[in-house]
Amino acid sequence: MSRIAVSRKLAYIFGIATPLAETIRRWGTWWDNPPAFLDDYFLGAFLIAGAWVTRDPRSGRARALLAGAWGFACGMAYSSAAFHWTAMRSGAVDPAPIPTQSVFAIKLIGGLIFAIALVLTVTDDEPPRGQVPSAFR
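Now predict its structure.
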């Protein structure tokens, strides 16, 4: 399986799982801070769009869109973990039905997976359409 195929599968998985997890986490409290709730829906939409357009993995533009979606996800994961760390240190309790420290760990692991998926996307060895593989140059 190529790197872009792995990245694409991860994009579908996290494009669905992230908004779903955020819905469970903030159920009943989303109106307290709507932007904090909706950003994960944007993240999911971007990942699904990136996965969808890479149906033809040789498209350079499609790969760029998927890489951009992963870049957005990495930025969201970093900022979310940083804000969560600050909130934890001040004693704030997360609205999730699991411990605040567990939510923080999930955010760190998710951010690491997002970064790995971004690297897989930009280092894929399959040449974009219209380019000759380096072995034939």
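Residues 3-127 form one domain.
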